[in-house]
Amino acid sequence: MATMITAECISCGACEPECPNNAISQAADIYVIDPLLCTECVGFHDYEACAAVCPVDCCVTDPGNVETEEALIARARTLHKDVVFENFESRFRKGADKPAASAPSLAQTEPPAASLSKTEAPAASRTAEATPPAAKSEPAQAPQAAAARAPAAKPVSAPRTAEARAPIPQTAPPASAAVAPINGRDVPATKLPDMQDWKIPVHCFKCGQRYEEPLDHFMIGNVLWCPHCYKSMVVKDNLNFQIRTTLKDFYEKSERELAEFKARREAELKQFVERRERELKAFEIRQQQELETVKKELEKITQSYNAPGRPAKRGSLFGWG
């Protein structure tokens, strides 16, 4: 059967990058699958990748379009002429008694450190149904075939594409102003974390629990999984834009305020030094004036001193004294 997308699709876009045949595209309201391109992931996975990442489980098999494994692998060979399909993976060969839309039931001893896939909880209960070791051993294949049948990573919160791992642009911190330290330091003690180190809080809309995800997990089309209830949430462009705009505005505002703070401190320090210089000069002038005044007073005292042997001043002939 070919895979189809039902009307319950929320148009999140999580399934589109997972299709190895580019069979998924966006229609007017929902995403659709081209049955002429869909191979039910035969040749690439033993499960249907679109159904594994769908947060609302709307990627289901189409009972009106039944196809055999031979027809699907023949279509895959036609679409991918440069790939050698030998001992390929197929849902017909593993877990044939399970629904085609289910994710692979890989036995795991411990969950990943990041957010968990929504298929891990059911897979844990089906550990006993895992494929025998003999079915897992396969002969060595050509590099192209190995690349073609490499199983896709489970849908965890980490980014899946090289574009999603592109470094986050950051604004270089402003150069420190040449301000003399006051009270032993010239910059605030609070240090902003690096943008790559941010942990974004997420509230699960299903269970209401709170968890955190690294900033680089908030890429458009990436799926976040609640570690409490395994409910998924797809990161769309508006969420990505709001988070990065908020952080960008915060860092730009912090850098601008720090530069203004340092400039204000430098201006205040310059005014303080100039005022001290003026006060010092005024004090020196006043001291010099007082020194001259004291010299004149001393000179006046010595001049008016009636020393012994000093000639007496003679009085006028017709006057008193």
Q: What is the averaged pLDDT score?
A: 75
As a whole number of angstroms, the C-alpha radius of gyration is 42 Å
Low-confidence stretches: 96-180
The helix/strand series, from N terminus to C terminus, equals EEEHEHHHHEEEEH
Helices and strands in order:
Blueprint: E1 3-5, E2 24-26, E3 31-33, H1 49-53, E4 59-61, H2 69-79, H3 120-125, H4 133-136, H5 143-148, E5 199-203, E6 210-214, E7 223-225, E8 232-234, H6 237-303
Antiparallel strand pairs: 1-4, 2-3, 5-6, 7-8
Summarize the structure.
The chain is of the alpha+beta class and 321 residues long. The protein has helices at residues 49-53, 69-79, 120-125, 133-136, 143-148, 237-303; strands at 3-5, 24-26, 31-33, 59-61, 199-203, 210-214, 223-225, 232-234.
Give your account of this protein's structure:
By secondary structure, the protein is an alpha+beta fold. It has helices spanning 49-53, 69-79, 120-125, 133-136, 143-148, 237-303; strands spanning 3-5, 24-26, 31-33, 59-61, 199-203, 210-214, 223-225, 232-234. The chain has 2 domains: 1-106, Alpha-Beta Plaits; 156-161 and 168-180 and 196-305, no CATH class. It contains 6 helices and 8 strands. The strands form 4 sheets. Strands 1-4 form a two-stranded antiparallel ribbon. A two-stranded antiparallel ribbon has the order 2-3. Strands 5-6 form a two-stranded antiparallel ribbon. The protein is rod-shaped, with a radius of gyration of 42 Å.
